[in-house]
C-alpha cells in the first residue's frame, strides 16, 4: 500500500514540480519545497489534491507537518 | 482574533511611535518622490476622494490588495491615498504593510524606516510568518488598514502573476471576517516589467475596486478561493488599464 501511495503522491505532485529530475529520482526524504522547488501555495494545492484523490481530510496541523514525500505518505496511510 | 498581551502592547507602541514620527517621515518620503524622483500620480485629487469615500463606507478595518511591480509601491500608494492631514486625523487609514523580512533584515536603517512606517515583517519561517498573519488579522479586527501584495513578490513578467500568487492573503481575508477587500491596480506609464525602482519622472495611474469575496468553502479551499478571486479582480483591472492605455 505504502509504495502505491508513494507513486500516487509523485503523480499528484508532478504538475506542480519545477525540478523534474528530482521528482524522477525522489525518495521518501525528498522535500517538496527545497528539492522539488514547489512553493508553499502550491503545497496547499497538493494537500487539497491528496484529499480529493484519497477521499480524506487533512487538518491544518497535519498539513503544516508535511515537508517531504515521506511525510505525505505517512499522513495519507494513517487515514486510508 | 486573540493575540498575546505582549504582542498587543508592542503593536500599540509601534503605532504610537509611528504616529509621532509620521509628519517627518511622510514629508521626507514625499519630498524624495515628488521633487527628487520627480514622480507624479495622475488624478491625485480624484484618488484621494475615492479613498476617503471608501474609508467612510468601511468604518471597520480594510484589507488592501495591490499588484506589485516595484519596491516602493506601498510608499506610492500611501502618498496617493490621503494627505498627511487626513492621515493625522485618522491614523488607522495609514496602512500597515507586510514586507518580506529578508529584504530589510540586513540594514538597520531599513528596519527603522519599516518600523516607523507601520510595517510588520514577514519571515519565511512558517511559524513566524503565521505570527505576522495573526497580528495582521488582529489589526483588521480593530479597525486598522492592512496592505498585502497578494502576488507575494514583484511580478517578473510585468503582468499580474496568476500562477505563483500566495494563499496567505485568502487566509488573512478569512481571519479578518470582512466581506470586502480593496483591490488596487498601480502602474507607471513607462513600467514594462518589475523593477526595483520606477524610472525618474514616472507618472502613475491608480484604480481601486472594492471587491466582495464570495466564499462558500471551508478551510484551505476557502483560502485558495478567496486568494483566487482577489487575483482575478486584479487581472480584470489590469485588462481595463491596458484597454484604456494601449
Structural features, described:
The complex is a heterodimer of chains A (80) and B (246). Chain A is mainly α and 80 residues long. Chain A has one domain (2-77): Non-ribosomal Peptide Synthetase Peptidyl Carrier Protein, Chain A. Chain A has 5 helices and no strands. Chain A has helices spanning 2-13, 20-24, 40-54, 60-65, 69-77. In chain A, helix 1 packs across helix 5 (69-77). The N and C termini of chain A lie close together (10 Å). With 246 residues, chain B is α/β, with parallel strands linked by helices. Chain B has a single domain (5-245), classed as Glycerol-3-phosphate (1)-acyltransferase (3-Layer(aba) Sandwich). Chain B contains 9 helices and 6 strands. In chain B, strands 1-6-5-2-4-3 form a 6-stranded mixed sheet, with helices on both faces. In chain B, helix 7 runs parallel beside helix 8 and helix 8 (168-176) crosses helix 9 (219-245). The longest helix of chain B is centred in the first third of the chain and has 32 residues, at 5-36. Chain B is globular, with a radius of gyration of 17 Å. The termini of chain B are far apart. Chain A binds chain B through residues 39-41, 44-45, 47-48, 60, 63-64, and chain B through 126, 152, 164-167, 219-221, 223-224, 227.
Amino acid at each position: 500500500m505504502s509504495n502505491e501511495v508513494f507513486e500516487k503522491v509523485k503523480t499528484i505532485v508532478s504538475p506542480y514540480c519545477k525540478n523534474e529530475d528530482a521528482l524522477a529520482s525522489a525518495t521518501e526524504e525528498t522535500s517538496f519545497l527545497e528539492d522539488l522547488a514547489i512553493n508553499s501555495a502550491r503545497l496547499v494545492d497538493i494537500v487539497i489534491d491528496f484529499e480529493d484523490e484519497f477521499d480524506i481530510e487533512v487538518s491544518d496541523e497535519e498539513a503544516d507537518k508535511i515537508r517531504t514525500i515521506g511525510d505525505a505518505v505517512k499522513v495519507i496511510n494513517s487515514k486510508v | 482574533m486573540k493575540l498575546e498581551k505582549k504582542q498587543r502592547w508592542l503593536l500599540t507602541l509601534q503605532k504610537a511611535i509611528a504616529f509621532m514620527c509620521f509628519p517627518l517621515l511622510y514629508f521626507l518620503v514625499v519630498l524624495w518622490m515628488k521633487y527628487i524622483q520627480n514622480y507624479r500620480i495622475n488624478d491625485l485629487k480624484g484618488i484621494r476622494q475615492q479613498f476617503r469615500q471608501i474609508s467612510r463606507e468601511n468604518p471597520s478595518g480594510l484589507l488592501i490588495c495591490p499588484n506589485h511591480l516595484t519596491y516602493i509601491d506601498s510608499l506610492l500608494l500611501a502618498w496617493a491615498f490621503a494627505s498627511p492631514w487626513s492621515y493625522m486625523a485618522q491614523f488607522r487609514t495609514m496602512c500597515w504593510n507586510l514586507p518580506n523580512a529578508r529584504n530589510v533584515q540586513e540594514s538597520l536603517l531599513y528596519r527603522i524606516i519599516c518600523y516607523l512606517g507601520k510595517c510588520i515583517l514577514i519571515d519565511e519561517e512558517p511559524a513566524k510568518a503565521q505570527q505576522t498573519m495573526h497580528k495582521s488579522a488582529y489589526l483588521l479586527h480593530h479597525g486598522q488598514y492592512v496592505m498585502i501584495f497578494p502576488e507575494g513578490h514583484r511580478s517578473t513578467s510585468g503582468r499580474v502573476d496568476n500562477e505563483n500568487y500566495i494563499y496567505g492573503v485568502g487566509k488573512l481575508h478569512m481571519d479578518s471576517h470582512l466581506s470586502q477587500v480593496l483591490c488596487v491596480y498601480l502602474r507607471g506609464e513607462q513600467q514594462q516589467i518589475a523593477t526595483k525602482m520606477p524610472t525618474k519622472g514616472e507618472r502613475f495611474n491608480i484604480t481601486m475596486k472594492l471587491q466582495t469575496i464570495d466564499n462558500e468553502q471551508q478551510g484551505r479551499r476557502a483560502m485558495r478561493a478567496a486568494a483566487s478571486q482577489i487575483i482575478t479582480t486584479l487581472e480584470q483591472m489590469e485588462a481595463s488599464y491596458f484597454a484604456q492605455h494601449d
